[in-house]
Write a structure and sequence with these properties.
Keywords: Isomerase. This is Phosphoheptose isomerase. The strands form three sheets. Strands 1-2-3-10-5-8 form a six-stranded antiparallel beta sheet, covered by helices on one side. The protein is built from three helices and eleven strands; from the N terminus they run αββααβββββββββ. It is globular and about 40 Å long. The longest helix has 14 residues, at 11-24. By secondary structure, the protein is α+β, with helices and mostly antiparallel strands. Helix content is 15%, strand content 36%.
Length: 173
């Protein structure tokens, strides 16, 4: 993504830039949420999942990432110095790629123990989390923009926003 991001950019400016870029790329945003205390997200039309994957994850084959018929492509926007909840999922694995901003932080663990180590992901970095793997996305010095694909592991009951087990949350959710 070709965005002009600084730590002083407002949430509105960031979202406007991302919306314009997604429109330029031909992606249909079916939902946009700027109300999250950590930032927000864009949900892309599911029928555009192959195009989304080839745009943001060109190094991955669709046959390798598509466990079921649904991928739920999203763009996550994390604010400076904010953290998403320490969480895991029963019905999905996730693939992330930092597509704008300088760096984001990620914590990952196979257990509920979060630990102190923050892995820094530079723009262009890619990470994959397995179903049940504990994880947290962290905004560092600047806004971070992350392309996300959900790998639904249960074809009968695809994952949704209810499939979040929060172990710790800065915002009391």
């Amino acid at each position: 993504m070709n965005l002009n991001i600084s730590p002083n950019s407002s949430k509105e400016e960031i979202f406007e830039q991302i919306a314009a870029e997604l429109n330029t790329l031909g992606f249909n945003v079916v939902k946009q949420d700027q109300t999250r205390p950590w930032g927000g997200f864009f949900v892309i039309d599911e029928t555009q999942a192959p195009a989304f994957a080839s745009t943001y994850f060109p190094h991955l084959e669709m046959s390798d990432i598509q466990i079921t018929n649904k991928l739920s492509p999203k763009i996550l926007v994390v604010a400076p110095e904010k953290r998403l909840s320490w969480q895991y999922h029963f019905r999905r694995a996730e693939i992330w790629k930092v597509i704008a901003g300088t760096t984001v932080g990620v914590k990952i663990s196979p257990t509920d123990e979060e630990g102190d180590e923050v892995k820094r992901l530079e723009s262009g970095s890619f990470i994959q989390m397995d179903k049940g793997e504990r994880h947290r996305l962290i905004g560092l010095e600047s806004w971070g923009v992350v392309a996300e694909i959900w790998q639904h592991t249960d074809p009968e009951t695809p994952s949704d926003e209810e499939d979040i087990v929060r172990l710790q949350d800065d915002f009391g959710r």
